[in-house]
Amino acid sequence: MAAAIALLAAGPLGLGDGPVAEAKEAARAKSKSKKTKQVECRPQSPQKFLKRRTFVQKGMLVPKKHAKAVRYLAEHYGHVETEETRRFNPESAHSQATTVRFMGLPLSIHEKIAPALHCVEKRIRATCSGKPRRYTPRAVGGFRTANSYRGAEISNHLFGIAVDIDPDRNPCCGCVDPWPTSPLCHEKKRTAYERTALTRCWIKAFERYGFDWLGHDDLEDTMHFEFLGNPDRFYKK
Known about the structure:
Blueprint: H1 2-10, H2 19-35, H3 52-55, E1 56-57, E2 60-61, H4 63-77, H5 83-86, E3 97-102, E4 105-110, H6 114-127, E5 140-141, E6 162-165, H7 183-186, H8 200-208, E7 211-213, E8 224-227
Antiparallel strand pairs: 1-2, 3-4, 5-6, 6-8, 7-8
Helix pairs in contact: 1-2, 6-8
């Protein structure tokens, strides 16, 4: 894309020597550099201080810990149209959105976590094909422009680093209506794994590459995964 823009800007005179030709060559080099940047699927854990259950305890937001997490996310992914996050990054998170295909479905996410999601899908296809481990998603959701949390808490969907899978089959029992009305939320279950249609194999595939599953959170948000690792670890040096 960068090379194409440079060529259009150069116009017909770009075929000669001089500054225009040098600009074209620089654009080609930049484009080639992007193409050769390869993804390497290195396992990693979510960063603990970014996990929701670190800064939301017994249903109460811990302001200092929450502010630390928000600052990190804004610095790395962009602001989310709030005064607080604009102080840490002038570029918006949504301006860095990209649409990828995850398990055959289109999904809008932050471009920085596309490699992580690629690794998750690769892992799922390699290890979750057997009948007990298999799961076929019908709907996925990523970027949002409206905050789904009440109060000061900021949803990671605004940063484009969160993914929801089939809300109708994977409920959020601690969320606002209508999610807690799911029959799965009212049945006596020992763990969140029993409240979701997702298989453990799928959940483990996400967790292997830096995603945190909010089924572990007090919300028991079983549809929701958010990338809390280091996105730069997926690129070969």
